[in-house]
Design a protein that fits this description.
Shape: globular
Oligomer: single chain
Number of strands: 3
Helix content: 25-40%
Number of domains: 1
Largest sheet: 3 strands, antiparallel
Strand order of the largest sheet: 1-3-2
Structural class: mainly alpha
Radius of gyration: 18 Å
Order of helices and strands: EHHHEEH
Amino acid sequence: MEVLKVRRRPGDRNVALKICLNMIMERHYMRLDKSQQNLCTAHEIVHVVPLYSRNGCDQQFLYTNRWVLQYLPHAFSVFDSRPKKEPKTKRYLSIDILLQGLNMVCYRLQKIYMKPKITREKISRNYAFFHPISLKERIYPVFESRIKEIGLIQ
């Protein structure tokens, strides 16, 4: 993305046709914790555009996070069955172990690099959510007043 100059950077004014990597998740960690399940995160999830998806990983992500439909009931269709998981062959397992080690090294290097820059971002070995500004305080009051206006809540 750097080479193609399509990465959106903090402070960019011209963001058209740029990619903002604000949600990075490991394939084995797709379900968000209850503490992260809210309208703002639901909105983020339905707007996720996977840069790479192997074996229906993007569909599995939506299926695993179907709680989103509690907030945005028409956001996407839920599938009748879970997407198929790839078979675990010996070759797959050895590649997986190698990638897990590489992931840990990259995670530690990235955390050292980011430490002075971290504000509200949530970072773990399995995911990174880059949301430096919490819109929850601005969005919820507007959302609540609008649903009151149309009579969905009192």
